[in-house]
Amino acid sequence: MSTSTLLETRDLGCIRNDRQLFEHLEFALEAGEMLVVEGPNGCGKTSLLRILTGLRLADKGDILWRGEPIDRLAGDYYEQVNYVGHHDGIKHELSCLENLRLARAMGVPSQRDLDDVLEQVNLYAYGESVVGSLSAGQKRRLALARLLATDSLLWILDEPFTSLDKASMEMFAALFEQHLQREGVIVVTSHHDISLPTLAIQRLNLGQPA
Amino acid sequence: MFLWFHKLGSPPHFYRIAGKWIPWLSWIFLALLLAGLYGGLILAPPDYQQGESYRIIFVHVPAAWMSLFVYVVMAFCGIVIIVWRMKLAEVVLISSAPIGASFTFLALVTGSLWGKPMWGTYWVWDARLTSELILLFLYLGVIGLHNAIEDKRIAARAVAILALVGVVNIPIIHYSVEWWHSLHQGASLSKFDKPSMPPSMYVPILIMALAFQFYYALALFHKCRAELLQRERNSKWVEEL
Amino acid sequence: MSNRLSLGQAFIFLLRRDMLLALRNRAEYAMPLLFFVLVITMFPLALGAQPELLARIAPGIIWVAALLAAMLSLDSIFRSDFDDGSLEQILLSAHPVAILVLAKVCAHWLVTGLPLLIVAPLLAEMLGMSTAAQPTLLLTILIGTPILSLIGAIGVALTVGLRKGGIILSLLVLPLYVPVLIFAASAIDNAAMGFEVSAQIYMLLAFLLLSVSLSPWATAAALRMSAS
Q1: At what angle do helices B152-185 and C198-227 cross, to 10 degrees?
Q2: How far apart are CA A168 and CA A192, in angstroms?
Q3: C2 within some domain
C-alpha cells in the first residue's frame, strides 16, 4: 500500500434481497484520483456507494481509509466524506442559505463564504428563497453546493448530474477537477459521460445484473 | 470454545447438527411430557380450596415461564446480531418469535380458563394476565416488524434492536402492572403465591417446565432448519442436499 | 485541525432547524393537538354528561388521549428527513448521531408535547377534574410526554423505511407506553383524592432519565438500519 492511498476496499461483497450484487471487489484510490463506477441498472452501483459512505454495512470485506477500517474511525471518517445521493438531502421549507448552514453544522465548514458558494453554482439570486420554489436542476445544484460549503477529502456522488443542463454539468466537472488537484478523491456513478482533462480516472464495471 | 461457537454458527453445520438432534429431543420431550402430565393430573392431590380446576397450572405456569424465557433468548440473539452480525442468531431470533408468542397465548388462554371457576369470569384484569397480554403485544410487534421489512438481513437487525428495547422494558412493564393492580384491587388472591406448595404439586410443574424447554428446542430447530433453507436457497450447500 | 462546530452548537443548530421547519408547517403540527382535544370531547358524548363519572375517569381519558396524540405526531420526527435524504446527511455527520437524534426528539417534544400543557388544564376543567389535581396533571404531562417522544422515536426509526409503517408503529410503541400511562394516571387520581403523589412522580422521573440515556442510542441504531 502506497502512503498516499486514501480509500481502499478489500474483498468487498454485497447481497441484497438474497441476491449477490458483487463480491471480491477491490480497488485503491490515491489522493487526486477519481473512480467512476459503471454498470447497468440494478448492478449495485448505489449499494456500493452507500457501503463506501458507511450508510450501509458491507456483507463481506472491509473498507479502509488511510489504512484503517471505516467502522472503527466512525466520526473521523464521516468528517472526511461528502455524499450526494439520489435524494438531494435538502429541506424544501428552508432557504438555500439555511440549507447550506445546516450542512456546515453537520460537517466541517469550509473557509468559503456561503454567498460565494451560491455564486459559484449560479444560485446567488436565490439565497433567501425557499427551496421548494426552485426547479429540479436548481435543487440538484444546491445539493452539490454542499461539496463546496464543507471541507472534505472524499466526495461520493450518486448520479450527480441528474436533471442538470449542459452548462451546469461542465461547471461541476471543472469543480471535480479542482478537487482532484487539491489531492481530494471522488467516487462517482453517472450515466452521463464525465470528461475531465485529468488522467487519474479509474473505471470499475460492476457487470451484469443477475 | 470460540471455535466451537463459530463452527456452530455456520448454517450448513447447524443444519446437520440440528437434524441429528431432533429425534432425541422429540423422545425426551415426549417422556417428560407424559411424566409431567401423569404427575400433575393423577398423582398430585386436589387443591383443598380449588378442587380439580387448579390442575391447569401444570400447563399455565410453565407456559408463562417459557413466554419470558423465549423473549430473553431473543434479546440475547439481538446482542449477538448487533455485535457480531451472526447469521444463525438472526435465524434463531426470528424462529423464536412465533414460538414465544404461542407460549404467551397458551398462558393467556389457560389463565383465563382457570379464571372462570375461580372468579366466575374468563377475564379479570389480574396483574399477571395483563402482563402476559402486553408481552403478547410485544411478540406480535416483533413478528409484524419482521414481516414488514423485505430484506431479511435488515429485518433481522431491526428486530434485534426491538427485542433489546423490549427486554429492557419488560421488567418495567411487569412491575408497573403489578403495582397498578395492587393499587386498584387491594391485595387480591394471587394465583400461585401459595406459601407452601407440596412437592407433589411443584415437582410436576418443574417436569412440565423442562418438557416445555425441550419442546421449545425442538420447535426452534425445526423452524430454524426451514428458515435456513429458505434463506440460503441459492447457496451451494443447500443445492447439495 | 478541523473547525467543525462543537457538539453543543450542532445540537442547538439542529434543534432550531427542526423548530423552524415546524413553524413553517404549522398546520401539520397543530393536528395532533387538535386530535387530542377531539378525542377528549368524544368521551362525554359517548358516556353521557354525568359530572361524577367524568371527573372520576378524567385522568385516564386525558392520558390515553395524550398517548394517541403522540402516536399521531411521532411519524413527523423522521419521516420528512427520510423522504428527502436529509436523514442520510445527519447519519453521515461528523457528530455522534445519538446526540443529534436527541436534538430532533427535543424539538418534537417542544412542538407536540409542550402544547398539551396549555390545553390540558382547560380540558381537565371541562371534564370536571378537581382543581387540587390539576398541578399534578401538569406535572405528569411535563415529565411524561418527553418519555413518549423518546420511546416513540425508537419505533419511528424502526418503521420509517416501511411503506405501511404507521400501522405497525402503534403495535411497537403503545405497549412500551404502559408504565407511563399507569403512573401518570394514578398520580392524578391520587391527587384528586388528596393523597401523596411523590412516589408516582419519582417513578416518572426515573423513566424519563432512563429513556433519555438509552433511547437515543437505540434510535440511532434503528435509523442506521432503516437507512441501509
Answers
A1: 170
A2: 13
A3: no
Rounded to 5 degrees, φ, ψ at B232 are: -100, 25
d(CA A147, CA A142): 9
Residue B232 corresponds to which cell in the numbers above? 440460503
Name the grid cell of A79: 468528517
CB within 8 Å: C186 and B183 = yes
C-alpha cell at A45: 452501483
**Domain range holding C64?**
7-227
First to last CA, chain A: 33
In chain A, which residues have their Cβ closer than 8 Å to the Cβ of C224? 55
* Spatial distance between the Cα atoms of B211 and B79, rounded to a whole number of angstroms: 27
Q: Which of A79, A83, A102 sits opposite C4 (nearest CB)?
A: A79
Which of A50, A75, A106 is the closest to C89 by Cβ? A106
The set of chains that have 3 or more CB pairs under 8 A with B is A, C
List C residues 7-46 in contact with A (Cβ-Cβ < 8 A).
9-10, 13-14, 17, 20-21, 24-25
Task: Write down the pLDDT at residue B1.
Answer: 53
Q: Do B151 and A16 touch (CB under 8 A)?
A: yes
Tally of domains in chain C: 1
The predicted complex's ipTM stands at: 0.91
B218-228: burial string, b at 16+ Cβ within 10 Å, e else: bbbbbbbbebb
The pLDDT score that the predictor gives to residue B2 is 58
Rounded to an integer, what is the distance from CA C224 to the centroid of its chain? Answer: 22
By C-alpha distance, the chain C residue nearest B157 is C225
Averaged over C194-216, what is the pLDDT? 94
**Helix (H), strand (E) counts: chain A:** 7, 9
Rounded Cα distance between A134 and A176, Å, is 24
Do the domain assignments include residue C106? yes
**Hey, which chains touch A, using 3+ CB pairs under 8 Å?**
B, C
Residue C1 lies in a domain: no
The pTM assigned to this predicted structure is: 0.91
Q: What domains can be seen in chain A, in order of their start residue? A: 1-80+155-210 (3.40.50.300), 88-152 (no CATH)
Contact A108 C3 (CB under 8 A): yes
C2 and chain A in contact, CB less than 8 A: yes
Nearest by Cα to B73 from B154, B153, B145, B142: B142
Highest mean pLDDT, choosing among A1-5, B129-133, B201-205 = B129-133
* Range in A184-193, B103-112, B141-150 with the lowest mean pLDDT: A184-193
